[in-house]
């Protein structure tokens, strides 16, 4: 159930999506401590985006999870995702924001119900 929604202004033709999806899925699973079979990664490329008044490569992410998040986990996950974005998308860590949401089970749907 951990989900990473990742948006970037990097053009689609500059991205190898499968590498980013694979690396991010493994990082989210490992760091949050949830089975990878439940991790979802959504990657949106070519999103019109300005950061600091420029359209240089940038990204925005949101991590949603039922538990597993907290100050130390969020910091570790932010570092890991920043490394992935820098190596795979050439987005410097200073041009990436991430928001963490720790949600209640009843606020997360799956398999026609809620957790």
Tell me what you see in this structure.
InterPro entries: Macrophage_inhib_fac, Tautomerase/MIF_sf. Keywords: Cytokine, Isomerase, Secreted. GO terms for molecular function: cytokine activity; dopachrome isomerase activity; phenylpyruvate tautomerase activity. Belongs to the MIF family. It comes from Selaginella moellendorffii. Helix content is 30%, strand content 25%. The protein is built from two helices and six strands. The protein is globular. With 115 residues, it is an alpha/beta fold. The longest helix is centred in the C-terminal third of the chain and has 19 residues. It has a four-stranded mixed sheet with strand order 2-1-3-4, with helices on one face. It has a two-stranded antiparallel sheet with strand order 5-6. It has one domain: Macrophage Migration Inhibitory Factor (2-Layer Sandwich), CATH 3.30.429.
| Share of helix, binned | 25-40%
Total count of domains? 1
Specify the number of helices: 2
Order of helices and strands: EHEEHEEE
Which runs of at least 5 residues are low in confidence (pLDDT < 50)?
Answer: none
Level-2 CATH architecture? 2-Layer Sandwich
How do you describe this structure in short?
This protein has 115 residues and is of the alpha/beta class.
Task: List the main descriptive attributes of the protein structure presented here.
115 residues; alpha/beta; Macrophage Migration Inhibitory Factor; two-stranded antiparallel ribbon; 25% strand
